Each structure stands twice: as C-alpha cells, then as structure tokens.
Amino acid sequence: MKKNVGTVDQIIRFIIGAVIIAAGYYYGSWWGLLGLLVIATATFSFCPAYVPFGISTCKVKKK
Fold first, then answer.
1. Given this model, what pLDDT does residue 29 score?
2. Where are the domains of the chain?
C-alpha cells in the first residue's frame, strides 16, 4: 500500500471521524461506526477511494 493521505488530510479525517462517531453515539445509530472507517484511512495514510482517480495528498519528496 502506497501512502496517499497527507498530514493535513489525516488531521481532517481524524476530526471528521470523531464527529461521526460522536453523532452516532448521541443519536443511538449504528451509522456512527462509519467514523471508524474514516479514522482507519487516516491511521494507515491510505484511502482506497483515491486510487482509481490517482489522487494523493502526500507531499512529493524532492531529490
């Protein structure tokens, strides 16, 4: 797995994931578990949805 999620993207994903989990808990809905998926993509720095489009938010290393 090649990393395709940058640092800023990771931070945003952690925040959004936490909000989704909190909303799911507050409303008593299983939909809150989707927040775990968002947090997992941030943790592993890999988003499968980016692959087909060739998107990467990681910074390119200069030689």
1. 94
2. 7-48
